[in-house]
Design a protein that fits this description.
Chain A has 346 residues and is an alpha+beta fold. Chain A has 9 helices and 18 strands. Chain A has a 6-stranded mixed sheet, sandwiched between helices. Classes of the chains: A alpha+beta (346), B mainly alpha (269).
Chain lengths: 346, 269
């Protein structure tokens, strides 16, 4: 497990043993975490894994049944959402349909009693920040999905939160727009130096944007760390399967390859397709396998193979090479260093 | 497009005629010179009944009472109906469905049952019949109309709007005033107008809950028994049609505009 960022700094958000139950459903079941100031923190997991409930616990829409929550060192249990120094970008954007774009952005300033001229100026600046200058008079219904997303972002940022919470903010956008927004969000976060807490079920999004990723399963954090670490060294069978594709190597298979007899993960791109007469590279086990299926995916070709011992494996090999056909037998090298031991199932 | 057949057109026109021709007769006999019976065609036309209505204090007392009752019953319904809708629109709690049903029941029950139940209850509690017992009787069904309108609109309102408002720093009252009310305003206006119209021409519940007062509909019923000055009731009926019809028409356009505007925006994208 990754240690919380430097312990001398007060974390932006700290959870200690936080639990939230809905009836018999343990939505959040004992979560500890520390998010550093200025960190881009992703909460990744399938639906129902507790990541959104954790976000709502920070925002104050839910109260914990057990445990302790701090925002910049201040206890927030019992505080309503309007007394917390955090703001949320909602999944459905939640723009007020009866207000113009400018009035939407200025809403948080209005309820704080900021004078009209001042809040209009700040709203204009916030809209310029998200590249929507000049759209103040429009209605939310007249905007595209990407524009609504930006308005929601401006509306949350204009009140200067200490932590920005984003609940699957890119989920409703199409692929091209989503990639653009990923770059932009990351740039915005870096420029503002704010902590962003980002909930997503898209592992690609989490890996590409976050400084650290927390992987959620069944109400708990199963692994937290920088994207490279979570991808390269998945802690459990669940993480290996959920974050990118991975072969799961059972302990007896691992020992037959010459590695310690432990449950291991093996990323498909680590397997090397050997020429028929090629020698085995150093530190690698060589297996013969029967090709079951080949699929072309642009940069790589994905081979589904079955070893003589009956283990199903997936290998991603450079597509430029000549592809073996289904039914052929191939030789694959498995670098023993690529076999990463895992702790368990969850 | 399917073109409607001739038979269908005739049936539709017939249905409309059946509904509206009697109203035309009300209008026609407001101008007749014959005061004891309704002969067709009227023997002559006159405007004198409008003058007679203008001069009769009992009519204006009844109109005043009906307007006052309707206004106060509507006001009570707006407050209580909105509160009930707010509680029941989204919350999930034990007994929610039965409670929703109990709210709507007064309008489904025959007025005569509501009326007799209220009369007995007032009697048991030894509450004298008065202006306020009429108002309470009317409020029972007015609440339903407001509740139904408000609850339908609240269910269409995304729950994250309320969360967004609180997230941005607004407390519950600010959220109600700045987000909830503007979004259910037209529904409340429509519900309130319908409630007003229902109260204004209510007869049955009023019969059971009124003391010596007579509201306009009660006055009209008693007037029918009198042999003379019959066109006076017609004149009053014409006035009632105007008073009732205009708010209902306005409510219809207001609610339609709310739904329509949203539709046009969606289509415009």
């Amino acid at each position: 497990m990754h240690a919380p960022a430097t312990s001398s700094v007060i974390p932006a958000v700290r959870f200690a043993g936080v639990a939230r139950h809905f009836g018999s459903v343990k939505a959040v079941d004992g979560v500890d975490l520390a998010i550093a100031p200025g960190e881009f923190f992703a909460m990744l997991g399938p639906s129902g894994s507790g990541k959104t409930t954790c976000l709502r616990l920070i925002a104050g829409f839910e109260q914990p049944d057990a445990g302790h929550i701090e925002i910049f060192g201040e206890t927030v249990e019992g505080l309503p959402p309007y007394r917390r120094p955090v703001n949320t970008v909602f999944q459905d954007y939640a723009l007020f349909p009866h207000l113009s774009v400018g009035e939407n952005v200025a809403y948080g300033l209005k309820v704080r009693g900021v004078a009209r001229a001042e809040r209009e100026k700040l709203a204009r600046e916030a809209l310029a920040l998200v590249k929507l200058a000049g759209l103040e008079a429009r209605r939310p219904a007249q905007l595209s999905g990407g524009q609504r997303q930006r308005v929601a972002l401006a509306r949350a940022l204009v009140v200067r939160p200490k932590v920005l919470l984003l609940d699957e903010p890119l989920g409703a956008l199409d692929l091209k727009l989503r990639e653009e927004m990923q770059v932009e969000l990351k740039g915005l976060q870096r420029a503002l130096g704010l902590s962003f807490v980002f909930v997503t079920h898209d592992q690609g999004e989490a890996l590409s944007m976050a400084d650290r990723v927390a992987v959620f399963n069944e109400g708990r954090i199963v692994q937290v760390g920088p994207p490279e670490e979570v991808y390269e060294r998945p802690a459990t069978r669940f993480v290996a399967a959920f974050v990118g594709a991975a072969n799961v190597i059972e302990p007896d298979t691992a020992s037959s390859l010459g590695a310690p007899a432990r449950l291991c993960s093996l990323r498909p791109e680590k397997l090397v397709l050997l020429p028929a007469d090629g020698a085995a590279p150093a530190g690698a086990a060589v297996v013969e396998a029967h090709v079951v299926d080949v699929s072309y995916q642009g940069a790589v070709r994905r081979l589904a193979v079955r070893t003589a011992a009956g283990t199903a494996l997936t290998a991603a090999v450079p597509a430029a090479r000549l592809a073996p056909a289904p039914g052929e037998t191939v030789r694959l090298a498995i670098p023993l260093a690529a076999l990463v031991p895992m702790e368990g199932e969850r | 497009m399917n073109r409607p057949s001739l038979g269908l057109k005739v049936a539709a026109l017939g249905g409309l005629a059946f509904l509206h021709i009697p109203l035309l007769f009300i209008l026609l006999y407001a101008f007749t010179t014959e005061e004891k019976s309704y002969a067709f065609p009227p023997p002559g036309y006159t405007l004198k009944w409008f003058g007679v209505v203008w001069g009769r204090a009992d009519i204006w007392a009844a109109v005043g009472l009906s307007l006052k009752v309707a206004a106060i019953a509507t006001l009570i319904a707006l407050v209580l109906g909105t509160l009930a809708a707010g509680a029941l629109a989204r919350a999930r709690f034990f007994g929610r469905e039965p409670i929703s049903l109990l709210f709507v029941l007064p309008i489904a029950l025959p007025g005569i049952v509501t009326g007799i139940a209220l009369r007995q209850a007032f009697g048991l509690m030894e509450i004298p019949f008065s202006f306020w017992t009429i108002v309470l009787g009317h409020a029972t069904f007015c609440i339903v109309v407001v509740y139904n309108n408000a609850v339908a609109r609240l269910r269409r309102l995304s729950p994250s709007l309320i969360e967004a408002s609180m997230d941005l720093g607004a407390d519950a009252f600010q959220t109600f005033r700045l987000v909830v009310l503007p979004n259910i305003g037209t529904a409340l206006l429509a519900g309130g107008m319908l409630a007003f119209a229902l109260s204004f021409d209510e007869v049955i519940v009023t019969t059971f809950t009124a003391g010596q007062q007579s509201t306009l509909p009660i006055w009209m019923l008693s007037e029918l028994i009198r042999p003379r000055q019959r066109p006076v009731t017609n004149v009053v009926a014409v006035l009632v049609i105007l008073v009732t019809f205009l708010p209902i028409l306005a409510a219809y356009y207001l609610t339609r505009e709310g739904g329509g505007a949203r539709g046009t925006n969606a289509a415009g994208k």
